Amino acid sequence: MHTHQYLLNLTMNKDYLRKIYKKRRDELFLDGSISKISNSISQKILNNNLFKQAKNIMLFYPKGAELNILEILENTLSKDKNFYLPVCCNMELDICPYKTGDEICLNKYKIYEPKSEPLCDLSILDIIITPALCADKDFNRIGYGGGYYDRLFKRKDLRAKKIIILPDEMVLKSVPCEEFDIPCDVIITEKNSYYNPRSSL
């Protein structure tokens, strides 16, 4: 198959999965399941050894029907940890400190972002909690198509463990991926924690 046709098919397959699993996630949100799943995943993160050992943790601010684990910020197990949120800057993500009550504003994607100064040294991050619409058991993810996290994961100064959070039904056998896609290290759902055997955890 010619490279152009292969890439076209890959894009179409990814777009199809985005459409299917965004619709399914919206259904879970409407029936109240996303809130329950979010609470369960929050507890699993708090009890995870990677979280317990981490000092600097990047979360994401949920939009609409996304999983919401911001309750982690208020947990006593988090009192000695530093938290960060992503900020869209041109085509890259800046990583900015955040704590409950800090000033936030809506960006062009209608996602809340902090107004604090971004990190200069990404190597201090221990964990990145990563959004996705679905993922597979080879730890490849399908995001929203903007490529922001893909570009972040390619940063040379990044050493953080990448943790995908998802409803368990959205962990698939396989999703389309390209040769240079960077797999994540852990997937945490309301039912299971999956660990990438190729990661040094």
H/E element order = HHHEEEEEEEEHEEEE
The percent range for helix content is 25-40%
- Quickly count the helices: 4
Q: Cα-atom Rg, whole angstroms?
A: 16 Å
Q: Report how far the terminal alpha carbons are from each other.
A: 37 Å
Main beta sheet: 7 strands, mixed
Shape: globular
Structure description:
There is one protein chain. With 201 residues, this protein is an alpha/beta fold. The chain has four helices and twelve strands. It has helices at 3-30, 33-46, 49-53, 148-153; strands at residues 56-58, 82-89, 92-97, 104-106, 112-114, 127-130, 134-136, 141-142, 161-165, 171-172, 186-188, 193-195. A seven-stranded mixed sheet has the order 3-2-1-6-9-11-12. Strand 7 and strand 8 (141-142) form a beta hairpin. It starts with a helix and ends in a 6-residue tail after the last strand.
Annotation keywords:
single chain, 201 residues, alpha/beta, three-stranded mixed beta sheet, 4 helices, 12 strands, disordered N terminus
